[in-house]
Amino acid sequence: MFAPVASIIALVGPTAVGKTKLGVQLAKSLQSEVISIDSLQCYKDGSIISAKVKPEEADGIVHHLVDYVDAQDEPHTFIQDAIDCIRDIHSRGRVPILVGGSTSLTIPILQAAVEDGKNPFIIILGDTPSNLEIRIRKRVDEMVQEGLLRELFGLYKLEKALLEGPHFSRGIWKVIGYREFYPCFTMPRTDREQFSELMAQCLARLKTETVLYANKQVNWACDTLVPFLQTMKIPHVRLQVDGQFTGENVMAKAARSCASHSAA
């Protein structure tokens, strides 16, 4: 039921739960490659705000479906692109590692993979709401240090050049953070104190909206993803993350959990 017959392994979970790191470790332990299942990391722009894997984090592991869609476009071919990547990785004798938490792409891709004759195994990662919130707030602070505000202002200038106005539901500008910081882009910077106060308010909104989105992802996994997996008879386990998780022992824990569920 587990790794011997699984032709795809998917790590699914809310933002900031640790999917990227575990995906890399898992891919290294299996000598495989990662397919990003994220509707925003596919864009060429917005690397910081969409939390794309950094080169040093990837550690030599190939990541597919990242950085290939223009800012103003929609990833209409994403599902077929994912299936093509899965087939390509299989052709090289490897088990693809799907990593993501997209509530719009995960189920269609798994459905298409099953229809394509693949046997996925799903690991649903979770953590307590308080731990997730701590991680999210820390991540946003790290993004600011990495140049988030400069990147967002660059997206504002790109939007003006390409679309001539705000489009919060189109392309990369859908990303959480752009709408929240938009008042900063249009406010005169003559009053530095007032501008700093506005920046702090926007940053607080970004953290709040990201926490809300993570909660939405958790609820989606419980209410929509798990029933889908049960209906499709796709083997899956739910694991709470902890500081001891690595690519090696996440599979061991998943295997033990799967065995205990099978024996029950």
From TrEMBL:
SUPFAM superfamilies: P-loop containing nucleoside triphosphate hydrolases. GO terms for biological process: tRNA modification. Keywords: ATP-binding, Nucleotide-binding, Transferase. One of its GO terms (cellular component) is mitochondrion. It holds the Pfam family IPPT. The keyword tRNA-binding does not apply. GO terms for molecular function: ATP binding; tRNA dimethylallyltransferase activity. Belongs to the IPP transferase family. This is tRNA dimethylallyltransferase. It comes from Aspergillus nomiae NRRL (strain ATCC 15546 / NRRL 13137 / CBS 260.88 / M93).
